[in-house]
Amino acid sequence: xxxxxxxxxxxxxxxxxxxxxxxxxxxxxxxxxxxxxxxxxxxxxxxxxxxxxxxxxxxxxxxxxxxxxxxxxxxxxxxxxxxxxxxxxxxxxxxxxxxxxxxxxxxxxxxxxxxxxxxxxxxxxxxxxxxxxxxxxxxxxxxxxxxxxxxxxxxxxxxxxxxxxxxxxxxxxxxxxxxxxxxxxxxxxxxxxxxxxxxxxxxxxxxxxxxxxxxxxxxxxxxxxxxxxxxxxxxxxxxxxxxxxxxxxxxxxxxxxxxxxxxxxxxxxxxxxxxxxxxxxxxxxxxxxxxxxxxxxxxxxxxxxxxxxxxxxxxxxxxxxxxxxxxxxxxxxxxxxxxxxxxxxxxxxxxxxxxxxxxxxxxxxxxxxxxxxxxxxxxxxxxxxxxxxxxxxxxxxxxxxxxxxxxxxxxxxxxxxxxxxxxxxxxxxxxxxxxxxxxxxxxxxxxxxxxxxxxxxxxxxxxxxxxxxxxxxxxxxxxxxxxxxxxxxxxxxxxxxxxxxxxxxxxxxxxxxxxxxxxxxxxxxxxxxxxxxxxxxxxxxxxxxxxxxxxxxxxxxxxxxxxxxxxxxx
Length: 570
Ligand code: 16G
Ligand code: MG
Description:
Elements: E1 18-22, E2 26-30, H1 32-41, E3 57-60, H2 65-82, E4 85-90, E5 99-105, H3 114-125, H4 131-141, E6 151-156, H5 162-175, E7 179-185, H6 188-199, H7 209-225, E8 236-240, H8 245-257, E9 262-266, H9 280-286, E10 301-304, E11 311-316, E12 322-325, H10 327-345, E13 351-356, H11 361-370, E14 375-378, H12 382-389, E15 394-398, E16 404-408, H13 410-417, H14 424-439, H15 447-461, H16 465-469, E17 477-482, E18 491-493, E19 498-501, H17 505-513, E20 520-525, E21 532-537, H18 541-558
């Protein structure tokens, strides 16, 4: 393993080892004295309850110190159990600057396993006096060998609160006798990459920033060399970095790939506030460009979110109209390109695209009917899409909001290795595929990596941003939120496309949908906010707006709406 090995200096006197008997035969060695002592320094505000959701824990930064310490403890246990390096990322992604959050990264760079998400919730919510018992319970349930070494890597975003909070994570790791490496400032996908590299003996790449920059840039520059563009088509791109970590890392990286692309950074954190009126989430949800970026007609622009794991593209047409190119269109560009490459190589490898219910109906239709690529739908949240995408030789997954990547099976890598024997044209396609694979971050959706993939494909295909956008026309759609007393009264099935409870809600939605052409609607309880989300699409914006409003009213009536009834108009 590369990099320096860190050891927090918070518990130099943590020498006294207590051995206690737990359950029937599990002998647990934990330094309970040190745990109690240091936990008190990261005390939980009594009564605070948080849940490890789709994006880990997220709330106001001032409420998170105990959570960070405890996630350090949990990460150490997970590392001991898996005998691997695990990661902890301190970030609240696109949330306001005052918030913060934490996510654990499993050994193959993936999201934390579901049973451990539950442990995370229990541990974070245990009152001070119960914390040790919960910790011991987890060790027992998961048969953690506490004698095993633990190694945890830690990264953080640029929020003012992140540095201190990440120190609390490292305190937690240390109290359980674990070691850590503090990467300091990183994008979320960079931390996923580091974890993946460290657990695959360097086969995936070198677990350093330099390693990440070199691997991706080398692949990108190789691909761009194969594009037949003349000098005056020199590629440039405007990037809105949400005033976040993406700006720092892109700036560090740009000279590695500057032969192939020049990036102009906006909202680079030098003045504005993180995620304020900028970033991928703002652009996608308001369907307008970020502040602080001047856009000339037909210029290619993109936005990252606050931790650079999401990306959307956009441009202004000659009439000044704004066009958003979201995750669905990104998935279409990427999967079409990969499918063509596979056809050129002539190998019998399968490709699948994974979306969520939020995918625009036009994208699904285009992929299935025009591109003849099979499309699958999963529940919202990256882990669900990632998991499904692993079933294919090439699995491309994207949420409409811009989270996504592509995964490649070992069968694909084997075929590429054998490509030396192929004829010239096939060999060229195989080489291209090899570089594309290197350019993707297969551990997690990654704004920087996705941006370079997209730029390479556009260059290789000689496509302008408008031509890309014109692949299909999005169906007009509308998203709304409804406040209800308890959003858990809504349960769903069929990848969140149908409501099971409360009774009568799905029937009401069905009746409403019938009134409009090319229409579709669904509702689901949010995993990150205390609201019910409503999505509707139809053949015109007016119809989509009406349908969304009517569905909101049905939710309000049947699912215990609170506050003001949803009003029409947006
Ligand atoms: C989280 C998820 C994202 C999902 C969003 C839905 C990850 C890393 N992030 O941000 O994928 O789209 O939640 O939020 O999984 P919602 O449940 O509030 O609609
Ligand atoms: Mg994010």
